[in-house]
Design brief:
Helix 2 crosses helix 6, helix 7 runs parallel beside helix 17 and helix 12 packs across helix 13. Strand 1 and strand 2 form a beta hairpin. The protein is an alpha/beta fold. It has three domains: 124 residues; 189 residues, Rossmann fold; 146 residues, Response regulator (Rossmann fold, 3-Layer(aba) Sandwich).
Length: 536
């Protein structure tokens, strides 16, 4: 009995010691909130040369030049993961913690150095000397860090390149991406169609081994096609589901309430299912649009009219009239019309604005009959165009109507024949009969996905392809920052359903091209009326 008790006591002691050891291991592996915040601040210094404390300056070479550290962040030379990257023919060394705290021979200077400690590493970063006090290679900038900035940077260097140093949504074998889609409510069918298209493409990529061994995992949050709910869904995806990036989210009415949130959290959104806003500024560097704005599409309409493309015939200096609803996107189109008309020295002969669903079609048509324009530009809903077209046919106003296919939707196939045969529409995607489009159709058939919302599903498919291409370009050194940089370098990428996509550091709209189409009311489809017209 005594032996049993002793044995039991020893077992309890061992168990307690084991728990204490495990607890210490957990404490060493999981950083405190203060340390995590310090590491995150240091991460921003390392990757971007930015600090919320004060601006960091970098001194180059012999000291004559001093610049913002944002131009020379550590990651530019040492790489996203600290393993070194080729820069100007030089090979900067690895600066992972184990490498720094071990003796090493510099491939740049040929000097052998002893191991760093925290104090000598601070001096290397701020004064440009190694642990023995010898100068580092002149290609290494000297950064004027405050004490707190240096502490933050060192806190980050301790985890640089290890498993704690990764953005949310990334693991060794998974990339988690999210989409805010309407899964309930009147547009739930649209959300389901987009989800199926994204799922089909990601499944195809995963079946081929994923991207450098990582598979794509799609997470959906219900946005209910409402701006406020879209914002909530986006926050859930980022804060609760911790997705790495967003792709193909459905933005009702060009919803941009997420811009500030995405920018603050530095989460990329690739190819929202929406037209780009008129402003192409990069105040929100995280969102990459694929389709041209209605402003640009309206400019294409003017080019088509003035250059007399297709079958339209008009005077040498055609007279233009416009009817536009008071919605934000339609107003953007009207501004684009006026901007491009001014390029040709033209002005509108008449202009009517109306509230959606409240247009006085009789009054509008009477006014148009007085001026009889060569072209009538319409920017509004399909239902309003149908009401206007009916009155135009009744009163014999047979004037070419130019509008945007995405604005009026399926109403184009319900127009009276006399109006439909004279209508021309801007179309920002490739037509389904285009040869390149067949890859998309083949994938949907293979996955047994019904193509019931073809334009929206094709746009989501294009967004997914752009994401995968950019992730591939990053290699295994994937991060949100690297993804944004990769997207900014994307040039003339063919998705198969859109014009070639290009981005840059100052461009967040993939294409400004549209083609012009006519209406085949019998087959209920569009027929090409022009080649693609860039908005210049």
């Amino acid at each position: 009995m005594i032996k049993a008790c002793a044995s039991k006591s020893a077992f309890v002691t061992i168990l307690l010691v084991s728990f204490a050891f495990l607890e210490s291991q957990v404490l060493t592996q999981v950083p405190s909130e203060d340390l995590a915040r310090s590491q995150e601040r240091g991460r921003k210094i390392y990757l971007k040369g930015e600090s919320i404390d004060r601006e960091i300056r970098a001194v180059l070479g012999s000291g004559e030049g001093e610049f913002s550290a944002q131009l020379f962040p550590c990651a530019n030379c040492h790489g996203q993961r600290g393993t070194g990257s080729s820069e100007g023919g030089l090979r900067p060394p690895s600066i992972n913690w184990n490498a720094l705290f071990s003796p090493n021979r510099s491939a740049l200077t040929g000097q052998t150095r002893g191991p760093y400690d925290e104090e000598s590493l601070r001096r290397a970063i701020t004064a440009g000397v190694d642990p023995g006090g010898r100068k580092l290679h002149p290609g290494m900038p000297r950064y004027n860090l405050t004490a707190s900035q240096a502490t933050d940077l060192l806190a980050y260097l301790k985890i640089l390149g290890d498993r704690l140093d990764s953005d949310p949504g990334l693991s060794a074998d998974t990339i988690k991406v999210g989409a805010a889609l309407p899964m309930t409510g009147p547009t739930a069918g649209v959300g389901e169609d987009i989800k199926r298209a994204l799922t089909a493409y990601f499944a195809e990529v995963n079946s081929q081994g994923g991207i450098y061994g990582r598979s794509l995992e799609l997470v959906i949050a219900d946005s209910k096609a409402d701006p406020a709910e879209t914002a909530k869904a986006t926050r859930r995806l980022i804060e609760a589901d911790e997705v790495f990036a967003l792709v193909g989210s459905f933005e009702p009415g060009g919803n941009r309430v997420n811009d500030g949130f995405l920018q603050k959290n530095e989460v990329p959104l690739i190819g929202p299912v929406a037209f780009s806003p008129r402003s192409t500024s990069t105040t929100n560097r995280q969102t990459f649009y694929l389709l041209p704005s209605f402003f640009d599409q309206a400019r294409t309409l003017v080019d088509f009219a003035v250059r007399n493309k297709g079958q339209v015939k008009a005077a040498e200096r055609p007279s233009l009239a416009a009817i536009c609803s008071k919605s934000e996107f339609d107003q953007d189109a009207l501004d684009g019309l006026k901007t491009q008309a001014a390029v040709y020295g033209l002005e509108l002969s008449t202009e009517h604005r109306f509230l959606e669903g409240q247009m006085d079609v009789k009054d509008v048509v009477s006014s148009l009959l007085d001026v009889r324009p060569d072209y009538l530009f319409f920017f509004g809903s399909g239902n309003d165009l149908l009401a206007l077209a009916g009155e135009m046919e009744r009163r014999g106003l047979l004037v070419p109507v130019l509008t945007c296919a995405a604005m009026i939707g399926d109403a184009s196939f319900q127009l009276p024949a006399a109006v439909a045969t004279r209508s021309y529409l801007s179309y920002p995607a490739l037509l389904p009969d285009h040869e390149d489009y067949q890859d998309f159709i083949a994938l949907m058939r293979k996955a047994r996905v019904p193509v019931t919302s073809a334009p929206l599903q094709a746009l989501a498919y294009a967004a997914a392809r752009v994401l995968v291409e950019a992730v591939k370009d990053c290699g295994r050194q994937l991060s949100r920052s690297a993804l944004v940089s990769s997207l900014e370098g994307l040039k003339n990428f063919r998705t198969g359903v859109l014009s070639p996509i290009s981005f840059s550091p100052n461009r967040r709209v993939g294409t400004t091209e549209s083609c012009m189409v006519r209406i085949d009311a019998v087959r209920k489809q569009y027929v090409r009326a022009s080649n693609r017209i860039p908005s210049n």
